[in-house]
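@channel sequence for tomorrow's demo:
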Amino acid sequence: MELKKVTGDNFQTEVTEAGMPVLLDFYADWCGPCKAQHPILMEAAEEACDVKFCEVNVDEEPRLAERFGVRQVPTMLIMNGEKVFGTMTGLQSLESVLQHLEM
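structure tokens (generated this afternoon):
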């Protein structure tokens, strides 16, 4: 399973109108902790079937990062519709990610 790439063009369709909670991972290709976070998110996506997992490259989509006040990567937002229910910053363990998704 891959994380769905989100851009300014498909944000509304993929996130706002998803009809389910979305974990939105803001990352950068040059970021070591982001690279370490990716396989953890892939594993979490397998376990949390009722959550959609998406990613935003902050270098390619700076407006989305700015819109949500993302100042460091990785930053993960848990959203449902337009509302942000949770935020995680920095490298997170699988247990931490899954715990945040139980909110």
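heads up for whoever presents: The two ends are 23 Å apart (CA to CA).
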